[in-house]
Amino acid sequence: MIGSVKMTKSISVLGSTGSIGTQTLDVARMHSIKVTALTAYRNIELLEIQAREFKPNLVCVIDKNSAVELKAELADTDINVISGEEGIIQAATESSCDTVVNAIVGVAGLLPTISAIKAGKNLALANKETLVAGGSIVMKAVKDYGVKLYPVDSEHSAIFQCLQGCPENSLKKIILTASGGSFFGKTKEELKNVTVENALKHPNWNMGAKITIDSATMMNKGLEVIEASWLFGVKDEDIDVLIHRESIIHSMIQLKDNAVIAQLGVPDMRIPIQYALTYPERVFSPVKELDLADIAQMTFYKPDYDTFECLAICRQALRKGGLYPTVANAANEVAVDMFLKGKISFLKIADIVGNSVSEFSSDISDSFTLEDILYTDKETRRKVYEKYC
Question: Rounded CA gap, 171 and 163, in Å?
Fold first, then answer.
């Protein structure tokens, strides 16, 4: 999966106007990395600014009406403006890029990931849902097409960094750290009437709305457990989760001799983004230095699986295998969207995800296809909408 390769020279950024996308462009700007393609859903104001600065070969706007507007705004340039899902695939396979940064939110990132791999592109993957829903297919494709996959999630990048120099087969356990989100320490009774505004107040990270809600429910950590199992070839029982409110230790590994290695840094996504693009090199970063004396102390707690049920549900889905993680992810994406729109309560998110996983039945084990994933995702969403909307 991961091996030595020359530092990235050119990138295609899928989801360039989001949090990960804009920080990726910070790194590209600092290290003169060529940007060959940019994509967004409909934020054409920011996309135009990015396009004029980085002068990519193409930009894609998923929303076709917005793409028409952007094409008119960029008429004085040579930049090709395309649209729709087919446009995202074109950006993911753009001939002159060597690495695709996938910062798309949700399972919508799966097809572009597969397309990029088949086109021989290395991947800097921030789209965890790709591995949650299609881990076996993605990892097989990475091997079959001989490309490299570098994790961008801070936790998985931390694990990757900790593993550098460790002998093969020396890993005993992965320890994923979690901030605990907006509602750490709260009881279910206290969470009954929380608002969207409350849930979007993350203590440490500045992220998009969907991932911030996932952090508040601990669903994000559940998805990361599944992602880690695929990236590093470990089982659920070999992955621990530890609440670390300060977000200074981004994750740890425990080796067979019980030595523990941790990766520390200020909570800034430009460290893992940059490492994915410059690996194996370590180069100057715009991120400030970590001052442990200033931090003074760090705290650690066990997760509350009873209050934050999404974490337990994801672990259950991982153990069940097959298409169960696909169901959990699809149900969550719909539930989070409904919560953000004020249609359901915060606690209802976990109910919807749990019920969807419990009610799902499939005789498919690990031999499912991409079509099976897409069908299961679509059917899960349909059932959730029908039942709860």
Answer: 8
Please give the pLDDT value at position 201.
83
pLDDT digits (tens, 9 = 90+) for 341-353: 999 999 999 999 9
Alpha helices in 233-323 (DSSP H): 270-278, 292-295, 309-320
If one counts every other C-beta atom within 10 angstroms of the C-beta of residue 15, the result is 27
Read off the pLDDT band of 383 (50, 70, 90): very high
Please tell me the distance from the alpha carbon of residue 355 to that of residue 300, in angstroms, as a whole number. 31
Asked if 27 and 274 count as a contact pair (C-beta separation under 8 A), the reply is yes
Asked whether the predicted pLDDT for residue 4 surpasses 50, the reply is no
Sign of CA dihedral 371, 372, 374, 378: positive
Widest Cα–Cα separation across the chain: 62
- Name beta bridge partners: 40: 61
Helices 370-388, 128-145: crossing angle, 10 deg rounding:
170
Tokens of 285: 């970063």
For residue 3, pLDDT over 50 is answered with: no
- How far is 135 from 230, CA to CA, in rounded Å? 6
Helices (H), ranges, the chain: 19-31, 44-54, 64-73, 84-92, 110-118, 128-145, 154-163, 196-199, 209-217, 219-232, 270-278, 292-295, 309-320, 324-340, 348-359, 370-388
Structure tokens at 223: 């998805």
Specify whether the CB–CB gap between 142 and 118 falls below 8 A.
no
- Considering just the CA atoms, what is the radius of gyration of the chain in Å? 20
User: In this structure, are strands 80-83 and 260-264 parallel, antiparallel, or unpaired?
Assistant: unpaired
Distance CA 169, CA 204 (A): 34
Residues 6+ apart with CB under 8 A from 97: 10, 11, 12, 34, 36, 37, 121
Q: What is the distance between the alpha carbons of residues 200 and 220, in angstroms, rounded to a whole number?
A: 14
